[in-house]
Amino acid sequence: MSFTHRSSQPGRICAASALAALACVWLAVPVHAAAKQQPRAFKADYAVTIYGLTVARSQFTSRISPDSFKLEGAISSAGLAVIFDNTRASTVATGRFSKDATLPDDYSVSYTFGKKMKRTTLAFADGKVSKVINVPPLQKRGKDWVPLDGKDLVAVTDPISAVLVRAPSLGQVCRRTIKVFDGELRADLRLSPVGTGPVDMGVYKGDAAECSGKFVPVAGYRPGNKSIRYLRDRSDIRITFAPLGETGVYAPIHATVGTQIGTVTFRARQIEAIE
User: Fold this and answer.
1) Enclosing H/E stretch for 178
2) What pTM value is reported for the model?
3) Taking a C-beta distance cutoff of 8 angstroms, is the pair 229, 216 a contact?
């Protein structure tokens, strides 16, 4: 799966847009993940649906401690989506937690769609992106392309680390802007609180925070791209966050993203401890 916005074909796993693809991995972290002092590992299965039909499945393992994390996952198209675009991807992200932030160290994603293969690797140092590798290299863009500036790559996260929100309380989770870079696209997701309270979603029962999201492209995109314009101007984005044990870290357990071809839903199907 492409984790950028290079394609607008409806067969893409999530919905052929940068944010929809990003949201595929936003459900990478089990909500019961961490004891206060000891890291634990968990395995989780997730489904991506549109119009009630499953178009992708993913399996992730996560290791979360109070001061670090490692996430590994595999994503593949499913159901009718396989007919249009048989896509497979694997991804890994590592990083640390500071007092009030998530600090990624390394991120990589390798994927195939059809006969094409691509890979993106990012490294972070001193609060900014220090290395970007795209294989094959990105194509030369036209004059209408919004180029990246050095300041665009400061205090950003990769698509997986972006799921982890460090906050002093549940009520503060949605009061922030998440800055994301995927190797080409640089975008913000401006969160606003909708409400907090108990939820029962099968795999998770407890307190959660619901946020609305505003997608804001920053650089690394073409303004005329219809998917980008729809996400920026019309998309209804809702994300439900739950606490990761007693770590002070929160992660999404459910999300919906409005796209040109319909509302994409991301939900956990199963979560289990593996150690």
Assistant:
1) strand 176-181
2) 0.84
3) no
Q: Contact at 8 Å (CB) between 190 and 263?
A: no
Task: Evaluate whether 39 touches 249 at the Cβ level (below 8 Å).
Answer: no
Neighbours of 29 (CB within 10 A): 28
Helix (H) or strand (E) holding 82, with range, is: helix 81-84
Total number of residues shown for the chain: 275
Residue 26 tokens read as 């936003």
Question: Domain range spanning residue 88?
Answer: 18-273
Give every CB contact of residue 8 below 8 A, 6+ residues apart in sequence: 16, 17, 225, 226, 227, 260
Asked whether residue 34 is assigned to any structural domain, the reply reads: yes
Q: pLDDT tens, 199-244?
A: 888 778 899 999 999 999 999 999 999 999 999 999 999 999 988 7
The terminus-to-terminus CA distance of the chain in angstroms comes to: 29
85, 55 in Cβ contact below 8 A? no
DSSP 3-state of 161: helix
The whole-number average pLDDT for the span 63-87 is 79
- Give the H/E segment covering residue 87: strand 87-97
* Residues 72 and 60 sit within 8 Å (Cβ to Cβ): yes
Q: Could you give the dihedral angle defined by the CA atoms of residues 236, 33, 99 and 120, in that order, rounded to the nearest 10 degrees?
A: -60
- Total domains in the fold of the chain: 1
Give the tens place of pLDDT for each residue, 140-188.
999 999 999 999 999 999 998 988 898 999 999 999 999 999 999 999 9
Asked if 82 and 92 touch (Cβ cutoff 8 Å), the reply is no
More confident residue, 108 or 14: 108
